[in-house]
Design goal:
Layout lengths: L1 H17 L5 H8 L8 H21 L19 H17 L3 H7 L5 H26 L9
Helix pairs in contact: 2-4, 5-6
Length: 146
């Protein structure tokens, strides 16, 4: 199971490099719809959907080889945490031109902006996890009517 995940990761990374999705300029160009718009990311997305959609449809009809059942994502509630996270992701993506996956692949270039982005991304993840632990562990002030 692990070797197939490693292989999938390598194929994904190579695809990102070949499509130049590790270049922040390419992403900023895609987001610049009123200026010098670069549609490359749209073509990459359409290509990815074209590969994923039929395979997912086939997979949903099959039984897994190494598990009792498939574990498909469940629909979730749209809450403040989801909207806030999506907003932070979008703002970070728009300002930096990096998405987390391509940024991790781009660390292989050793570029300073990439390393700073990945470092701050990891720090942000650690801070959010630490805050979540603090909030879960904190006693809740509940009003009781006695």
């Amino acid at each position: 199971m692990i070797p197939s995940a490693v292989l999938a990761g390598i194929v994904f990374a190579v695809g990102l490099v070949v499509a130049d999705m590790t270049s922040p300029g390419r992403i900023i160009g895609f987001l610049d719809i009123t200026g010098a718009w670069d549609p490359t990311l749209a073509f990459v997305m359409v290509g990815a959907i074209g590969v994923y959609a039929p395979i997912a449809r086939i997979a949903r009809k099959r039984r897994p080889l190494f598990a009792r059942e498939m574990h498909w994502p469940e629909p979730s509630v749209i809450d403040t945490r989801l909207v806030g996270g999506a907003a932070m992701f979008g703002i970070g993506w728009g300002l930096s031109g990096f998405c987390p996956g391509p940024a991790l692949v781009a660390t292989g270039t050793g570029r300073g902006d990439t390393l700073i982005f990945v470092g701050t991304m990891v720090a942000g993840i650690a801070i959010v996890k630490a805050l979540a632990l603090v909030l879960v562990a904190a006693p809740r002030n509940r009003r009781t009517d006695s």
